[in-house]
Design a protein that fits this description.
- With 126 residues, the protein is α+β, with helices and mostly antiparallel strands.
- The protein is built from three helices and six strands.
- A six-stranded antiparallel β-sheet has the order 1-2-3-4-6-5, with helices on one face.
- A hairpin with a 3-residue loop joins strand 2 and strand 3.
- It is globular.
- 17% of the residues are buried.
Length: 126
């Protein structure tokens, strides 16, 4: 069962220090309309960050923002694989799969915003 973000489930994230996590810094902490809060996972190819989009009257939505590692953005094979994975994920509609919200390209780098499902990671559960 998924937890929703009603109330202040992520209040500590919203008010936490947004200083660098080593992977994005300065103006790069905003990708498209998303404000990067912190890194929440990653591997040798990609990083995943907790981010939020803010709107009028205090509206905010939390997302997982996946980016290719900087060294991988210059490799066409990695970019193609990232885009193909994103296209495939966007075609899946299932309660147990995070929805793709948006694909973006900024400053020579691709990123994808997906639904963020609050809870423990699979690695922690295992």
């Amino acid at each position: 069962m998924r937890k929703s973000y009603t109330g202040n489930a992520l209040e500590s994230e919203r008010t936490s220090d947004d200083s660098g996590d080593g992977s994005l810094s300065g103006d790069a902490r905003v990708l498209g309309r998303y404000r990067v809060v912190r890194e929440i996972g990653g591997g040798s190819t990609c990083m995943v960050h907790l981010a939020r989009v803010e709107g009028p009257n205090g509206f905010e939505r939390w997302v997982a923002l996946k980016t290719l590692r900087p060294a991988r953005n210059a490799d066409a094979a990695f970019v193609d694989a990232f885009l193909e994975e994103t296209r495939a994920a966007a075609c899946v509609g299932h309660a147990n799969v995070a929805s793709v919200i948006e694909l973006g390209h900024e400053g020579g780098a691709y990123w994808v915003a997906t639904e963020h499902v609050y809870g423990e990671s699979l690695a922690t559960l295992l």
